[in-house]
Design a protein that fits this description.
single chain; alpha+beta; Nucleotidyltransferase, domain 5; 5-stranded mixed beta sheet; 3-stranded antiparallel beta sheet; globular
């Protein structure tokens, strides 16, 4: 794209950034007032003194609604986990679950439908599209108790402190729908794809040519893959503008089989699998190198009283760190997905952190790691048919994957795990991956909320009970393994002499 066309498109970014926060604030107001949030515009560009046309404003509304809907879905997940880990009675939790599923935390005078059984008991009714087989008299609408609604609002207010409202005032990518950016295909020409972008000046569109992209051709060559009805405009820090086409491909069917792989992930070893593989062992070395540069530069900025985000070199360094984490996560998960025998992945609800890195570095890689892993796992479901399940992570680093004995002394070093009861000895991350894999179908542990102390205590009690049922030894005074042998042999259970040598791809 030449500089003249880039100059014509640049005002679009300023106009979108100016109106996006106001639009999403309108949606937030509707949510807090208990009004339904519409996916179609309920206001006009003139209400915000915006120079955008009606067609451009619809693209703005779609962007804001997509961000709002994703934020609301994350909020629902957090609220549901809080309800599950609470000590509320079953009836109250059932009502809270239904209120949360509808996102009706702030709806005044909320009524819920209930089905009346033959014994007069109230139960959750079937979906409305399946109620034809039930008589209308069996469904009643009852108001939700005000105290229960107050509790629902209290829970969601706490969840909002963990998930702030989306801030779209600094977006560098805008999504244009087909009415303002139609795509034209000209096969056989030097530029096979052209995008006609409407600008802020009526009747003066910009034609943007797109060079041939082999990756795009590969995606479009897949069965059922078509171009989506929108394009993305990107504005770099240097002012350059790029255009990307969006491909809509059908989801791949889920893989058959029952081979579920547990994944323990972190900064030291990026991913450890339950079958003994370690990936990304050199990642921490690279992060330490970048951390040394980051720490020195931020200290210099602090001495000069310069805000970090206003410094160009800090932004470049931040992007380099985020890009490195993103690329490593994608590379490793692609390697795992290429194993055609794997049908599903079981991951813990954790993030990237390491004690040997600075607080700033841990914050950067934690945010980048969580987002990247989540997006990549969702992408593997679409492209490879590999499902993924999240489980509670509490005590996976201290729990023995064989006998369930859980104690912090089982893991004296970062890499080695040795059970003080059965003598199991192997790499600590592999043991953690096996514990994670075993929790895939463990409803008793997964229903406890490990984010709170009460939930972690409940998980520890469950693990202790399971261990006690299989081992009658007294662990209250034990500070050393049952045997002093270093080769992993144990007189209590010789079959567990497993000083495992992990596979390092």
């Amino acid at each position: 794209m030449n500089q003249g066309k880039a100059n014509d498109l640049a005002p679009l970014f300023d106009a979108y950034r100016a109106v996006l926060p106001a639009v999403i604030a309108t949606m937030r107001t509707d949510l807090l007032r208990g009004n339904p949030v519409s996916s179609w515009p309920t206001v006009k560009p003139a209400d915000f003194a915006s120079p955008l046309s009606g067609r451009h404003f619809k693209s703005v509304w779609n962007m804001a609604y997509a961000a709002f809907d994703a934020w609301r879905a994350t909020l629902k997940d957090t609220v549901r986990a809080t309800i599950t880990g609470s000590s509320l009675d079953e009836d109250t939790r059932t009502v809270l679950y239904r209120v949360n599923r509808a996102g009706a935390w702030h709806v005044p005078g909320l009524h819920l439908d209930w089905q009346v059984t033959d014994t007069g008991e109230l139960v959750v009714p079937p979906p409305k599209n399946k109620r034809k087989e039930f008589e209308a008299a069996t469904i009643v609408s009852l108001p939700v108790d005000p105290q229960t609604m107050f509790l629902a609002r209290h829970i969601v207010a706490h969840a909002r402190t963990r998930h702030p409202f989306p801030n779209l005032s600094r977006v560098h990518t805008i999504k244009l729908d087909s009415p303002v950016a139609p795509i034209h295909h000209r096969p056989g020409s030097l530029f096979p794809w052209w995008v006609r972008v409407s600008t802020l000046h009526a009747g003066k569109p910009v034609w943007v040519p797109l060079t041939r992209n082999p990756r795009l051709d590969t995606w479009l060559g897949q069965p059922g893959a078509v171009l989506a009805g929108n394009v993305q405009l990107h504005q770099g820090t240097d002012g350059q503008i790029g255009v990307s086409l969006v491909v809509k491909a059908p989801n791949v069917t889920e893989r058959d089989g029952e081979h579920y792989l547990g994944l323990d992930w972190g900064a030291c070893v990026l991913f450890a699998t339950s079958d003994g593989r370690l990936y990304g062992r050199r990642m921490l070395t690279r992060l330490r190198e970048l951390d040394a540069v980051l720490t020195a530069h931020t200290a210099d900025l602090n001495r000069r009283h310069i805000k970090w985000k206003t410094d160009r070199y800090y932004r470049v360094l931040h992007a380099k760190i985020t890009g490195y984490v993103t690329n490593e996560v994608g590379r490793v998960l692609n390697l795992i997905a290429n194993d055609t025998t794997v049908t599903g992945l079981v991951v813990e609800k954790l993030d990237f952190r390491h004690g040997g890195l600075s607080k700033t570095m841990n914050r950067i890689i934690s945010i980048a790691g969580r987002a990247t892993v989540k997006k990549k796992l969702d992408r593997l479901t679409e492209t490879h048919g590999i499902t993924h399940t999240g489980v509670q992570s509490a005590y996976t680093s201290q729990q023995c994957s064989h006998c369930h004995y859980t104690h912090k002394s089982n893991r004296r070093t970062r890499d080695r795990f040795r059970c003080k009861c059965c003598g199991l000895s192997l790499h600590a991350d592999i043991n953690g991956a096996r514990c994670i894999q075993a929790r895939r179908s463990d409803q008793e542990i997964n229903t406890s909320n490990g984010a709170y102390k009460s939930g972690r205590d409940a998980i520890l009690r469950t693990l202790t009970t399971r261990h006690t049922q299989t081992c009658h030894r007294d662990h209250t005074q034990r500070t050393r393994p049952l045997t002093g042998r270093r080769d992993g042999q144990d007189q209590h259970n010789p079959a567990l002499a497993t000083t495992a040598s992990p596979k390092i791809p």
